[in-house]
């Protein structure tokens, strides 16, 4: 198998072998990941402004003493690229002039720092020194925010994940509610930048891709973050929200470039531990409401970081040449938690439901709930079909299914009193469900300055974690949850920078990542035949027979069993050779971004499932009511509502990506710099190594099954058209879709210096994001549906739990050709798919008020074209749909129960339909046969590219720094994001248009670190004695505040915005076609005893009438999908109070008190009831609505040197 990554982690030998493969490849390439984005540039002139050619420029890292030299061009310009972030001095000297040196220059990640020189006549031995510790103006049009080392190390981080600070840039958002981000959490999945959508950003580590190919195949967003370094090893990072440099690509949004620490000539390091305990934390709002105690919580996080020169006494002195960085971190946490759920009453398992009652909220009393016999359906005096109850509400022992009894015996007995005001069996079981996490991380890095022409950097990183938790409140065989969820990452990278000449530099880098995800949703090792299922069923299930089957119950009973598990491996290799050429006023940088991504799944979730509700034991077979039926009773009778057996294939998907680019930073004048670039993406479509995937649905072919079907039973007499095709078969391509060859991306940025303190900057750029999901695998996967009824739900097929799946459909691959997926709903990919295009643009002004004060105001916009969308090509025709839909003047009985609603099934007992309802049921809904391809159900075509989004924003950034004592950053974003694509009304082909689900109108961030200037060596009390200094000196305050306005609230998917309904606002009846909220009233059509439907208010606030809701005119809905309502905003303040103690020389001890959500302000963005039939419609559910963490306190200690 040609893979550079491992295909599993079943043995240690496999892991070691594949790690060695990865090491060999990366070291053979001798490449790596130091960002070329950090550079010094400038111009050298004499006192009259004339350019000085061939002046010597020396750039010195003040910590490592590594020097990089160059000379100015004929125009007096210079550029020194490929530098690491750090503290620098830059000098210029020329014959006949005094040397000028600028010191204390902080070069940040992704920064182009401009240092100009005006040399004065004199001797070269004379030196003019300038301290340049003030804020530098931008040297490019890129927009973004640098989070420097001080904020990375000192800001309070709940979980110590440095990526949690990504939301500090204007235009960047991290999900809806603030919460802890553990060091292994994939923050990229929730990061959205400038309307580009969550998870669509480029993540770089030391300047090269840090993307790990996703093990869960066919993901639309960019891959997971590959390696998340411990916060102690992070130097700083930059969030580039408008990347106009052609080096960035494969994203729709922005880029994040994180830089790790590099050793210096002095030994630096830290040892730390953070601890959390229950007694320090506040309780959740809902626990306080119900007077429940604070859930116990324990967390320990400890680690160490060490960096410095490599010195081996009497053997090797690596000062000024060889430097190392080591880091280690360990995490263990237990969030015990408690789950309150529902289990059956023990006497029910004997068939005795004589005590069964339900709670009637109208009378606030308990009433009998009757169990009906599903085999007694008959017409009553009114002609309505009803069932007879079991005498005494007791199911005879002879009717109890033995398999059901065995399965139900795995339920524990109730152990707590049910919740008042609910059905008496609800919330009658309480159990601990601890969430247990263990995690460790290791990092090693070597930097070697071989000579003045060659520099090399090598790094190895590793982290893994294990998590366990029950998610159904049960343990042992019927448990469902994480048993365990495991992740493991190995990563290698190297970097080689070579200087051919002062104006010609070469860089070659690569990074390899292997990420393994293991998800076991239930304990393995179970034998399903012990439940009474036949051996033939176990044989047909294969490996899935080792798991307790997934049994889902209605009436809020907790589920039994799980869907198995999966092992997924993602391999990624990124290579980036590039060259920088300084020519006159031009700094030209060209390179090739080359990546190989592989996804492999060894086994996937599926297996056997059954679901049961009260359908078979309620009085009416069409309409449910709270006074009849019970899901446990239905199951005891050996019946189920649905279920399936899913057999899914292993996959091996690979993708190649090539992106050559050229960037020219042109200093047109001393005031104007243009950033001109172009990039070309060749984003090859994924390929499944063994062609185990579908191609397109052929709409023109006559399906071979047509010869077996009686045409007289088809509405149009046939023929039956349509069939599924496969990749790599019968001349079909192997790739998921055609190669896109026109993804050209021009980039343009500019900076114009209006004066010494003010620049005007802006730009425009095009990027193409990562590709979208891949195709389905019908034929290579197989799904066998449980058949619950042959007559539309009137009578069950059971009792049949002793063998619910007498025939299990096995995967057939492509061997059945067009006969694949008959009676099912396949989907396929648009073969002419286009990569979504992202356009970003901005213009703004940056001004430095004082020495260390920076203010930036920008207009920022983006447009995304060709967004993914899908469409059902096998829709029921409009006329047939209207005939059955009450909102269009029809009657549901025309499709469900009326004369002619069911007809003879033309596909009954025809072998290619085996395993579906089309095969086993003698009748079929007549409306299904009106589809264009009646041998199939819904057929979805994906990636149709008719989606679009647009974003406009005002963004403000301000920064203040007072010496080394105070650093403050603030941002404000005012924005709007809109989407279009898909259909608001698929029947009438009305395209949808809506506010984006991630639209947050206002966003504010404020972060700062304040070293109180009191104590020895400080501004105040600089000469105080040590005893007094230990008490009042060394205090530090760091804080992080974030505010975000609420995101749009929508009605649930089953609710329609009526086309001609309106609610007057301010007594203005002239506002049409809009529902101005949900509080005034909601109504629904309710089936009456005679089969008719009546529009009836379902909320008490309708006041008994609803004249202000105009009865809709039947027809298409409006195209704007938006309720006009937003969820509550979020506000979060985290604080760190630290005390630093001087121990010895450079050694100090720091004690930290970190408080997260210091005001203990609850955020309610969950449990927001959008179901019009619920009593709480339009309100926040107080029992589970809080989505942020309550106030949490963490104690920490650091020993630093």
From TrEMBL:
Membrane-topology descriptor: Multi-pass membrane protein
Signal sequence extent: 1-37
GO cellular component: cell outer membrane
Any single Pfam family the record assigns to this protein: OMP_b-brl_4
Keyword hit for Membrane: yes
Main location: membrane
Keyword check for Ion transport: no
Entry superkingdom: Bacteria
Domain TonB-dependent transporter Oar-like beta-barrel: 260-1194
Location in the cell: Cell outer membrane
Keywords on record: Cell outer membrane, Membrane, Signal, Transmembrane, Transmembrane beta strand, Transport
Family matches, as Gene3D superfamilies: Carboxypeptidase-like, regulatory domain, TonB-dependent receptor, beta-barrel domain
One annotated GO biological process: siderophore transmembrane transport
GO MF, one example: siderophore uptake transmembrane transporter activity
PANTHER family (UniProt xref): OAR PROTEIN, TONB-DEPENDENT OUTER MEMBRANE RECEPTOR
Protein name, UniProt field: TonB-dependent transporter Oar-like beta-barrel domain-containing protein
Lineage start: Bacteria, Pseudomonadati, Acidobacteriota, Terriglobia, Terriglobales
